[in-house]
Amino acid sequence: MSDLEAVPNPVIHSCQIIDPGHDVRRFEVIGEGLKRGRQMAYSRSKIVDADRPGRVLALTEGQGVSIGTPPDGLQKMPVDPIVVIDSADLPPLWEVFGANRSEDGHWRLPTLSADVASPDAALHIGPQFVILETAARDAAAQFAGTSQLQAVSSHVMFLARGKFGPFRTECEAMGGRRTGDTVAVRVLLHDEGADDRAITAAAYTFRI
């Protein structure tokens, strides 16, 4: 849903990586709306190498719900591209969002602030994706005994809005007996300021 048409809230997001694209310089997301009802909407996308569109990198699917109507007179934001050139000098994304790995071993996002909030004053999905994947990758590396991991798939379910924080991850890593090169991690994100309520659940698969 467009922000001009509704106040969208994500419900489910999934991603399957087909090609890691280590040599890809630019990628393009080709979105496709599948169905839209009065409150629910469904979509999918294909992520491709922008310079070679026939090379598919990943597939995604999503489900969202409208939680309100945007105010009258809301205009589309002007296009103002932010050019970021990847380099070793850039900080990791978890650091940008103020996350850290506490002494108890759990990854956390700080108390909710305007920097990480969505327009409806809840934890934005961007920081959630970052902290969930960071915690999952860390747990997978500990389980596998190596950091040489390639993400294969992810599935995220948004259970409730994060309103307070800090936000803590709980991870459970496991491996298949027959495929010793695969590690799966389940992650729960809790809002410690809201009676430790679980707000997001995710599952990730990595290949060693």
CATH superfamily of the largest domain: Hotdog Thioesterase
Low-confidence runs of at least 5 consecutive residues: none
Measured as a percent range, the helix fraction is 10-25%
At CATH level 2, the architecture of the largest domain is Roll
What's the structural domain tally?
2
Percent strand: 35-45%
CATH topology of the largest domain: Thiol Ester Dehydrase, Chain A
What characterizes the major β-sheet? 10 strands, antiparallel
Q: Helical element count? A: 2
The computed structural class is mainly beta
What tags apply to this protein structure?
208 residues; mainly beta; Thiol Ester Dehydrase, Chain A; 2 domains; ten-stranded antiparallel β-sheet; 10 strands; globular
